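Supplementary notes for students who missed Thursday's class. We covered one full example, reproduced here. Read the sequence, then the structure, then the short commentary at the end.
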Amino acid sequence: MKHVALSEQDYQRLSATLTRLAPQGAMSLEKLDGFFAALLCGPEAIKPVECLPAILGAAFDDEEAFRTPKAMDQFVRQLSGHWLDIAHTLQQGLPFQPWLDEDEHGQVHGNAWAEGFSEGMQLMHEDWTLLFDDADAAPALAPIMALAFEHHPDPDMRPFLAGVSDAQRELWLGEISDAVARIHAFFARLRAEIAAAEADAEDEA
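Structure (token representation):
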């Protein structure tokens, strides 16, 4: 079945809904993009509807967050559509382009995207240690973790206490696309190896 990407209008509506629910703790579209990227790159894909509490925050339990069941259904459809857009990009080996919003000065920071990716990693934290423990693959996480922890409340968790230069930020942002591809390839290879081992075990049984 041919993949049909969400339209620009769909993305505008999705972003508007998330912005409206932001006071209740809903993710921004930028953070959602990073969150979904981590879930789709990682050890085992998790369906987006299973993550609604994390995505919507307190709005998940608010019966008035969506005026009608149709509005809720439309939101879930748009979420699923964005999920499928990212999945298609990764599965086809296409260049991944993170959704990065500009601030009021037209500057891109990338922190929300990286924080979303980090939050996605936490859902299967133990399995992600496989990547952290791999000397060849672990460096792919460096730019993402640097942006995710840039403003961490604990100064000891921040990569640069004196602040980050514009040049360093541009470098990190430019590395996201390749980092996501490398992380996806790492776990895809692991899944293939596990599936092959299980198939061999069944043949021997």
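Commentary. The radius of gyration is 18 Å. DSSP finds eight helices and no strands in the chain. If anything here is unclear, bring it to office hours.
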